[in-house]
Amino acid sequence: MSTLKESLYSTIDQLNDDETRQVLEYVTQLKKEHQLIQRLVQDPAIKLPPKNVGVFEKVEPIVGSGLPASECLSRDRR
């Protein structure tokens, strides 16, 4: 057995029932998401981006002057 799996087993042994249930739910959800992604990959109508490429470009935030919009809305409602 790999060291990673042994580490996981020893960590699970230290969990209480509620924590173990949460871990099991998380692993189950991961498995479902993985299965969904595998089905999407096989669908020719859907194109997924490569794993190592960011989907969104990074942009610099706009620095504005004056009052924030939320404050203007609050003043207008008074």
What would the keywords be for this entry?
78 residues, 3 helices
Task: Provide a brief overview of the structure.
The chain has 3 helices and no strands.
Description:
The chain is extended. It is mainly α. It has one domain (3-77). The protein is built from three helices and no strands. The protein has helices at residues 3-13, 17-42, 69-77.
Topology summary:
Elements: H1 3-13, H2 17-42, H3 69-77
Mass-distribution shape: extended
Number of domains: 1
Number of strand segments: 0
Largest sheet entry: none
What's the helix-strand series? HHH
Proportion of residues in β-strands: under 5%
Q: Helicity, in percent?
A: 55-70%
Q: Termini, distance in Å?
A: 68 Å
- The helix/strand class is mainly alpha
User: How many DSSP H or I helices?
Assistant: 3
> Unreliable segments (pLDDT under 50, ≥5 consecutive)?
none
Radius of gyration computed on alpha carbons = 24 Å
- Provide the residue-averaged pLDDT: 86
